[in-house]
Amino acid sequence: VLFIFVIGMVIAAVCGYMAGLIGSSNSPISGVGILAVIIAALLIKFVYGAADPQQSTILVAFTLFATAIVFGVATISNDNLQDLKTGQLVGATPWKQQVALIVGVCFGSLVIPPILGVMNTAFGFAGAPGAGADALPAPQASLISELAKGVFGNDLNWSMLGIGAAIGAVVIVIDEFSGRVNKKVALPPLAVGMGMYLPMSVTLMITVGAILGHIYNKWCERVGGDVGQKKRIGVLVATGLIVGEALWNVVYAAIVASTGDDGVLSIVGDGWANGSQIVGVIAFVIVVLGMYKVTEILAKRSEETDPSPHPDAK
């Protein structure tokens, strides 16, 4: 309890501060979680002493439960600080926001476990018992679990952790130096770390989205007018893509879990497996380009309706 209280306060402060600066999506929860699980495992091992394999399994589970609570603290601090900052920008009443945040935490506690249960029933999670070949990847969870097992199993490769820390220090120095030489050049340490341990299937689309967003923002600046309004509409479209994809995945998981067939919505047979992926990519590109075109039209209409420049316009 004392560990969760102390470490939770520190991590809440760090993650909340970072969320206020760069947003909750870029807050280094995984990084602080890795530190938390290593510290927790070392403390538990120091207090408990030597343990046989069966006891080590129990201690690993206990460590992961404690770390999960710390992760919950970090996640809530991320959302709360970002929401409070947004409320300050729009002039919201702080105590009403706090009440809404408490309600949100309560509803999240009720909604998230059933959704995870549906996901586990439909697909399973990589590394979990009974997970199949198409199980959902969980690279952060797998990494944290392996770290805890390594501490209690005395087979954790500390030299690799040291090398990673050294690489991180070098990247930070390069980022600071390059930023002073040219503000347009940067090497974010968080992005480097995420790229090292997250699979390409996760990080590739982030890069694609960043490129598309950069192109759209350049278009906004080139055509002029209410640049801030145009950019906000683009952000809304991107947000809709993220939320829509997440909601559809939940709906699809519920369908698969209820039918027991992950191909229940298939349009073509297995013989079209490769071709369908190509068609899917083409369709995705067309949809994205179409949505950006619609965004462009909406931005122009908004400018015609309210020609006065927004404070965010550059």
Automatic annotation (TrEMBL):
The chain crosses the membrane at residues 5-23, 29-51, 58-77, 97-116, 156-174, 194-212, 233-255, 275-292. Its main location: membrane. It is a multi-pass membrane protein. This is Transporter. It comes from the Bacteria. It holds the Pfam family OPT. PANTHER family: OLIGOPEPTIDE TRANSPORTER YGL114W-RELATED. Keywords: Membrane, Transmembrane, Transmembrane helix, Transport. GO terms for molecular function: oligopeptide transmembrane transporter activity.
